[in-house]
Amino acid sequence: MKKGTKRFGKDIKCQIISLYKSGLSLKEVAQKMGCSGSGVRKILIGADYSRRETGYLGHKNKSKGDNSPKWKGGKIKNKDGYIMIYNPDRSNGESKYLFEHRYIWEKIYNRKLPKNYFIHHLNGIKDDNRPENLIGMRNGEHIHQTEPFKKRIRELELEVLKLKQLNLFP
User: What pTM was computed for the model?
Assistant: First the structure.
C-alpha cells in the first residue's frame, strides 16, 4: 500500500482495526501497513475507536472540561502573565475565565471590586496571588505608586532569602 492512499479496501480496514485492537499504537499500525498515520486514524474514527495515547481521536469522542486529557485544573495563564480561573457559571457573553487575583481579593473582602479600581500585585509578580501581595487601588493611584512598592518588596524578599541561606529564618 502506498503512503497517502485515500481509499482502503474492506480487508485492509479490518486488518488495520485488528492490529490496533491487538495493542499496537497508531504509528506502529501505520508502519506495519505501509500507510500514513492519518489514514489509520481516519479508519479508526470511522470504526468509532478512540486513540489510547490521548483518550481522544477525532470529533466523535471529544472530551471537555475536567474530562479532557489536557485539563489543568481550570487555571490558565493569559498572554500578559496573569492567572485566569475557569468559572462555568458566568453567562451573558462574559468569558468563562476570570482573573484569579480579582477573585481572591473579592473573597477576602467579601465584596465586589468597585468600578475604576484595579488589583495591584505589590511585588510586581503577576502570578503571585497571595492575599498579602494584593491591594485594591484606583487607576490613578496604581500608576504612581507601583515602583516604590516593587522596589521595597524585592529588597525584603532578597533579605529573607539571605536569612534562609544562613539558616536564620525558618
Answer: 0.48
